[in-house]
């Protein structure tokens, strides 16, 4: 874990997809995000701290703890941190974290699991917003098509997820791998598209469930359509589509609604169950 | 309507809230947005066309039609248009359009109407995404608090709305005006907040309805809370909140769901009704 900290220039390169892929790393900033990554056991490659900017007591404590764990730490001036930062109010703490890509679970999805599958989401903010909803209702993870250029570790995706990214499994799979997984474990695979004829509320979701979402402009791809056993649409009286993260969230909440009667409680992190004793 | 076209520098100033307020105007670009504004009878103050970039036949036709209607038109080079543009692929057509702020309807909301009310939405993209959902299900309009700095005509809001903004009434009202309107016409006023105890699905929405949304970070303001007769929350198993546009959209679709049984059809543009003969 120890070694030299990443210099500023190397961290800046992580804004590009190619550098994130090559290094298997991404950069996060702000106490909230560093806490979220730390809480879920993410691998920290390097820490950056601008002591003059770092006012958050939690951020200060976290910086100490990560250093004590041997994470290489770079101390920078506020000016240097602002070069790295894309926040309106830079908080003076950031970290290079390993991008934990996983493979499709070989034992199959759990019987109660829900996943989302994407291949060509154009806006990383949309993907992040969708992951935030997904994590909020115990979706297991996001399956990203190997063919696309979708990156859940894009800075805007991580930011829009509000750190929820770290409580999801992030899986990369080819079309063939996903088709095999589907045949082997038989989850319900449902695509959301304005071109469907079935109202998303009239559909009976079953678990395990995979909700497939297309691109903002073109909807579901041919590869995605071939995977779906059913397609659902969200009714409208005007316009032709909703924002992708909104549409995905509405379908996910409908599926969740069917699994979880109002007021039901159970273990957290399971799709369709509310936390034990928790209000939310 | 005729006169001198707006020069590039003056249009660029419209990126700032102050210039938009002072001039009562905003800038839109791209054929889709110019069409949406034109279709709903917006007032065009000035047109900008870069003929070398304008490949869309609809855009070309629209430019001709707006010029024929006497809208002053500026012809620019691709380089000049790119200075104006915030799009990835500038389409070579843009327009300065009047920001149609309205007052609260004095005759009151229609008996079937739904409105949204906001006061401190921080991200114009979130507001635009919410307006896109609202327009898709026949919400009448958005009521913006006079006290805040929320601007539905911010370029990012217009863009995220995909032009749906133009099919909504955009109302500015003070707290006192809204309180008066509420007393006078007695709509149901429901706030969405994670701090509520009522599940948004367990609540019985009635019409006319106003759905109140707070700020991304702080939720509903005290002024907003004082207006609400009820507060609803969206249940979660993890995390503490959803994206604002997602949360608002989920509540709006639930209200709509209660008013519109699956498959029901009626006139378009009325909350809870599907278009006559239309699929969507």
Would you mind describing this structure in some detail?
- The structure is a homodimer.
- With about 280 residues, chain A is of the alpha/beta class.
- The first copy, chain A, has two domains: about 10-100, 2-Layer Sandwich (60s Ribosomal Protein L30, Chain: A), CATH 3.30.1330.30; about 100-260, SPOUT methyltransferase, trefoil knot domain (Alpha/beta knot, 3-Layer(aba) Sandwich), CATH 3.40.1280.
- Helices cover about 35% and strands about 20% of the residues of chain A.
- Chain A is built from ten helices and twelve strands.
- Chain A has helices at about 10-15, 15-25, 30-40, 55-70, 80-85, 125-135, 155-160, 175-185, 220-225, 245-260, and strands spanning about 25-30, 45-50, 75, 95-100, 100, 115-120, 140-145, 170-175, 190, 200, 210-215, 230-235.
- In chain A, the strands form two sheets. Chain A has an eight-stranded parallel sheet with strand order 5-8-7-6-11-9-12-10. A four-stranded mixed sheet of chain A has the order 1-4-2-3.
- Chain A is elongated and about 55 Å long.
- At the A-B interface, α6 and α10 of A face α6 and α10 of B.
